[in-house]
Amino acid sequence: MPNRLLSATEACLLLGIQAQTLYAYVARGRIRSEPLPGKRTRGYVREDVDHLLRRRDVRSAPVSAIQRPLDGGHAVLESSLTEILEGRLYYRGVDAIELAETSSIEEVALLLWGHFAEGEATLPPRAAAVNALLADLSPIDRLAAVVATLAADDPAAWDPRPAAGAAAAARVLRWLPTIATGSRQEGPVATALAAGWGRPASAPLLSAALVACADHELNVSAFTARCVASAGASVPDAIAAALSAMKGTRHGGQTALAELLLDEAATHGARAAISGRLRRGETVPGFGDPLYPEGDPRAGLLLERAVRSGTAAAGLIREVAAAGQAIVGDPANLDLGLAAVARVADLPPGSALALFAIGRSVGWAAHALEQASSGQLLRPRSRYVPG
Q1: Do 317 and 352 reside in the same domain of the chain?
Q2: What is the dihedral of CA 119, 125, 128, 133, to 10 degrees?
Q3: Which of 126, 142, 218, 251 is the most exposed place for a label (fewest CB within 10 A)?
Q4: What is the SS3 assignment for 293-326?
Q5: To 10 degrees, what angle do helices 253-268 and 270-279 make?
Q6: How many CB atoms sit inside 10 A of residue 325's CB?
Q7: Could you tell me if 59 and 132 lie in one domain?
Q8: 385 in a structural domain
Q9: Is the CB of residue 288 less than 8 Å from the CB of residue 331?
Q10: 86 part of a folded domain
Q11: Structure letter (DSSP) for residue 91
């Protein structure tokens, strides 16, 4: 039995891949995984690993990584920020779920940036005027538009030194609750958000959500931030670009769709809402993540906290999570977790995605700082294919 199953580390070393690629193979059924006897981790069937090696599709990964660096899970950059390993998420080697239970987003920013200085909640005049002008837009649209103006009024943001970049990121982080809620509030970010949305008692729950969202390795918005930073742009500009990427329906937009799913479930029932989407040929947002075939730990944390809240929405959250897993066959992911947080806290529409973006801004800034310090200009090559 010990020889039949490989640990994740052993499988990755044999295949020459990273953990997230291994989990993607498991999700696609190309490698089977089983619980390791007497352990809380899983093992990976050696026969399946050997089969992949014999086919040489993984051994050709260096060529694939050149030809398809932005697709298929191949690593394209080295980073010391975040690791996804055996179904767990770590920020600089510290379990992100434990951090969400014990730390503030400001403390996580210090961990990821290496520097931190408290910012001022009052927006610069030009940004405040833009925010007021766009008051009728969704929180994520205001965030993307207003953050794009911040670098223009913050000349210190262009200082190339890491501590100066972190200070600029801290200023943006402190301004984000004011932009998202339209209300200037003092105190930590989670407290300011809860107060700005008129739900001060929800601050601990929002704090956990912010930390759970802080980073997730090299997703599309983080890569966007790194590309912009590699060009020599400021940290606020990198965050603004990442916000535009996050709005896409295949990224953060899934969180907004998960909010709508909860609305539908509240009206028609959980099973009817999910079944109705499938009958219409639509996807069901809020379920499944190939990086977490055994379940997204961030969703587990937020759903557990949402259900434990004891609010009227707690039962609905429980029903949707159970029905989705039963019908779709996948466990809940972060998108449903964030929608659940917004539901039980009775936050305004669009708040779940805004919460996601504000928490993730810490990771975007970290990626921008790390990329800028490398001095590398990100310039992938294309492989011409006759059309």
Answers
A1: yes
A2: -170
A3: 126
A4: CCCCHHHHHHHHHHHHCCCCCHHHHHHHHHHHHH
A5: 120
A6: 15
A7: no
A8: yes
A9: yes
A10: no
A11: E
Judge residue 71's burial from the number of C-beta atoms within 10 Å of its C-beta, 0-12 exposed, 13-18 middle, 19 or more buried.
Answer: exposed
> Can you tell me the distance from the alpha carbon of 35 to that of 285, in angstroms, rounded to the nearest whole number?
28
Q: Is the CB of residue 139 less than 8 Å from the CB of residue 353? A: yes
CATH assignment at residue 279 = 1.10.580.10
Order across the sheet with 5-6: list the strands: 5-6, 42-45, 33-35
Specify the residue for token string 């300011």: 192
User: What tokens does 263 get?
Assistant: 């609305």
* Residue 82 covered by a domain: no
67 lies in the same domain as 101: no
- Evaluate whether 213 touches 355 at the Cβ level (below 8 Å): yes
Question: Of 369, 348, 336, whose CA–CA distance to 142 is shortest?
Answer: 348
Q: Report helix angle 125-133 to 162-181, nearest 10.
A: 30
**Which amino acid, one-letter code, is at 252?**
G
Q: Which amino acid is at 27?
A: A
Name the nearest CA neighbour of 10 among 40, 37, 33.
33
Of 76, 107, 138, the residue that ends a domain is: 76
- Which of 76, 107, 136 terminates a domain? The answer is 76
Is residue 86 exposed (0-12), middle (13-18) or buried (19+ Cβ within 10 Å)? middle
CA–CA separation, 37 and 40 (whole Å): 8
Q: In tens digits, what is the pLDDT along the chain, a chain of 387 residues? A: 456 888 888 888 888 787 777 887 887 678 888 887 777 778 889 888 888 877 644 334 443 433 444 444 444 578 999 999 989 999 999 999 999 999 999 999 999 999 888 877 889 999 999 999 999 999 999 999 999 998 888 888 889 899 999 999 999 999 999 999 999 998 999 999 999 999 999 999 999 999 999 999 999 999 999 999 999 999 999 999 999 999 999 999 999 999 999 999 999 999 999 999 999 999 999 999 989 988 999 999 999 999 998 888 999 999 999 999 999 999 999 999 999 999 999 999 999 999 999 999 999 999 999 999 999 999 887 788 887
What pTM, to 2 d.p., does this model score? 0.82
- Which residues span the domain enclosing 64? 5-76
Q: What is the DSSP letter of 292?
A: -
48 in a domain, yes or no?
Answer: yes
How many independent structural domains does the chain possess?
2
Task: Say whether 34 sits in a helix, a strand or coil.
Answer: strand
